[in-house]
Amino acid sequence: MYEYSFIPQQKNKYAQFLCILGFGVGLGFFYAANLFNPPYLYQTVGVCFLVLAIFMATRYVVKQYAYSTTDRGMAGYDLVINEVGAKKSTVVCRIAIDEITEFVPAGKGVGRKLRRDKPFCYNYCPEIFSRDAYFIKASLPEGVALIKFCPDEKMIGILNALLGQNVTESKKEG
């Protein structure tokens, strides 16, 4: 009844722009290393920019996340987040709906308020600066977890129905 899957698409191009900028600045510093002394200083800065660009590319450009709610039978429902790469899909998060304590839209200062308990924080958003993000706070046997992800309107409705609450779907502050 409440089984649903959703793969959010990237709407902004900040990550791609930052990757190209990082590669360009990194290569620029390598070129400058040939012109100025000491070259190792310019090469070190160039490597730092290239590493940052590679991280941004692997985290925000190549990977996608798939969100789904699955039925466990008599045990209830799970929220499952899969990381979809080029050739494989890996389950990176599986939370029973019973373990979720809060489900709120990400607005200005919301993440800071939810981090008071020093939870494990995970970001499963497909974009760097996502405007449609929501936070889930869950009490797990390992501790408290705070998960940021970007569900669509249908998944928000399903999670509200499963949790028995009503999260406002109006635009968030900030």
Write the layout of secondary structure elements.
Blueprint: E1 4-6, H1 14-35, H2 39-61, E2 64-71, E3 77-84, E4 89-96, E5 100-105, H3 110-114, E6 120-123, E7 134-140, E8 143-149, H4 153-163
Parallel strand pairs: 6-8
Antiparallel strand pairs: 1-2, 2-3, 3-4, 5-7, 7-8
Molecular structure report:
The chain is an alpha+beta fold. It has 2 domains: 14-61; 63-163, PH-domain like (Roll). Helices cover 35% and strands 29% of the residues. It has helices at 14-35, 39-61, 110-114, 153-163; strands at 4-6, 64-71, 77-84, 89-96, 100-105, 120-123, 134-140, 143-149. Strand 3 and strand 4 form a beta hairpin. Helix 1 (14-35) packs antiparallel against helix 2 (39-61). It is elongated, with a radius of gyration of 20 Å. The two termini are 35 Å apart.
What does this entry show, briefly?
Helix 1 (14-35) runs antiparallel to helix 2. By secondary structure, the chain is of the alpha+beta class. It is 35% helix and 29% strand.
Q: How many DSSP helices?
A: 4
What sort of overall outline do the alpha carbons produce when their principal axes are compared?
A: elongated
* Strand residue content: 25-35%
Q: In this structure, how is the largest beta sheet organized?
A: 4 strands, antiparallel
Provide the low-confidence segments as ranges.
166-174
Assembly of the depicted chains: single chain
Order of SSEs: EHHEEEEHEEEH
Features:
174 residues; alpha+beta; PH-domain like; 2 domains; 4-stranded antiparallel beta sheet; 4 helices; elongated
